Amino acid sequence: MSTFLGMPTVRPQPSRPPRDPLRWGASFPHAAHETLADGQLRANLRTATRTIRDKRRRVTAELDDWEQLRDAGAAIKASAMARLPDLLTQLEESVTARGGVVHWARDAAEANEVVTGIVREAGAREVVKVKSMATQEIGLNEALAEAGIDAIETDLAERIVQLAGDQPSHILVPAIHRNREEIREIFTHRMGDAPEGLSSEPRELAMAARAHLRARFLRAEVAISGANMAIAETGTVAVVESEGNGRMCLTLPRLLVTVMGIEKVLPTARDLEVFLQLLPRSSTGERMNPYTSMWTGVTPGDGPQEFHLVLLDNGRTRALADELGRQALHCIRCSACLNVCPVYEHTGGHAYGSVYPGPIGAILTPQLLGVGEPGGPAGAHDPTGSLPFASTLCGACFDACPVKIDIPAALVHLRERSLHPPGPHAPSATDVSMRVAARVLSSGRALRWAGRAVALVGRLTGGRAIRWLPWPGSLWTRVRDAPVLPVRSLAAWWARRSLR
Amino acid sequence: MRIAVFATCLVGTVAPRAATATVRLLERLGHTVDMPADQACCGQMHVNTGYGPEAMGVIRNHVRTFAPVLDGRWDAIVAPSGSCVGSIRHQQADVARRNGDDRLARTAEQVSARTYELSELLVDVLGVTDVGAWFPHTVTYHPTCHSLRVLRVGDRPRQLLEAVEGIELRELGEAEQCCGFGGTFSLKNSETSAAMVTDKADEVVATGAEVVAAGDWSCLLNISGALDRRRTGVRAAHLAEILASTRDEPWQGADL
């Protein structure tokens, strides 16, 4: 396919388009095996994540009340989740009163059906899109394509990803896995109207994209967006962005459809104060984002004259039922946790096999799909079940999160859920060895015997390092020596010392 | 003070020198040290691997062993590990409660309130930063994730190290980045772990230090294993070993 299109150097990542945007590819360790081998990818990621990370650190450090802002963000989200049904019906009433139409979608299929129906009724064959995780999550572009509707992403990085046939590998910077040389290739071969002799200079690339997108903005009849926030009290929907493409989509077309995860609702307009500070500083590392668009229903003679709001569940109420895990719904999609995560920095986003990569993805995706529930994915070797294990629990994500989601605690909890599905199941080899280990580690006596056994091996190996161990120890000795073992056990040392 | 040492299961079996150094250090500072025989493990490995229910027996044994601190048998409990103290302080009671043992949870909370990581005990409880140590080597310090972000020990280890005679501290690049150990992560996601520890080892080598130090043997096991494999000659020392080292009893860098 790629040869046919004349672009041998840039292959889509992953190579086949996923059927489910929340679950594709192998388990995390297997997927990471592929991405870790890509030196170019690792170099791109290292530079990019470190740059954003440093910017974020600078702009959050300059606010005296940053910690209080985080507390406020966490508290507002927790209280909104506690009365989510009320807030959502209030939002529906507010939006309807201002001339909008509200739709409720239980899952991806329902949401896609609603949106496709609206676009079809409007008679449009092409729609412009504002970058949106919710529409990524439900595979809306693919659903529209099946209905013969061309959905054009207008965020620059999202457009790159779309033209390349890739999946996004980062929530905020979806093309973080591509460098500018690859982007030049993608534009030249896939954009259709790229200028002759395009170079990989960032300015030239941006100008090419600008001209390409401008033509589509001006002819668009229908736009589709997500939402960063929606205010229950007023019915106001907000989109925060950097490039102005969002503003174009939200103001020029005749008809606007917004797909919004139900957890994005906030009680009052005053709550915006907190999130409009937390979000830009945590995501792009800016004090303020260049474009903040807000609209309330329909305003005659100004902006889209028809507005539809699709409220998407798709596993969110399921996540809400988990007392500890539900905090994943507080996420404002800033991606600060991705940028500070040492695992993400090494493996990249595609290893997570979901549109939600990184630490937040590792707790959100399993919950949206009901990990460990009857009939749900389970086990450390399942693509979804393996996600909570894709972390060293180093805690960098928790410290970076603007709404203080305790990601490490949620990861541990979801590991337990993943390994303990309801009903009888045959224990795995790990289950058995962990049960045996628990017996030894519950007894001082047993552990002293273990210490003596280790010291015996220590005497036999005589202070030499062990460079190779059989499986599973080989997983350790792949790049490390095993420790030089003690020749006398701690218990023996202590006993002799106590005699003195 | 009467202090009980919780060696931790890893140090107790594989690296006793962190525990023996802790004992020698505290005795040198004039304290009475005990090492309760029934101690084993805090339960962290099981809990963090998703075996919370299976960890109940481990936690029960730990709490039972150290509960005499509540009756005044000891004044404090210390462990040479930020990670294990983190689990004792932030996980044990939660796991007990979620598995329906409220009584265990309450006792675990009380015991954990008397349990300290080594640098916390020295700086906060004993009020000492200069422990009279002598360590004539160049050292780079890896602060470890759980000491930093679970216990928030801050610069306590640094205060202690800076007071050591003869030491030359070298700044570690990207010091706060995880070394890639992560307990069973190092086996379950061994390739990612390998990539992470390779970066950490690179940073250690770049400092030119003779010794890499940390407050957790688990991380040190990982970092020094990678350094040894590459034959860098950089040696590993637990914070306790550096603080226990004196002119009379200098650091040997080997176990028992």
From TrEMBL, chain B:
InterPro entries: Cys_rich_dom
Database matches in Pfam families: CCG
Stretches assigned to the Cysteine-rich domain: 3-88, 139-223
Name of the protein this chain belongs to: (Fe-S)-binding protein
Protein's organism: Actinotalea lenta
Organism taxonomic ancestry: Bacteria, Bacillati, Actinomycetota, Actinomycetes, Micrococcales
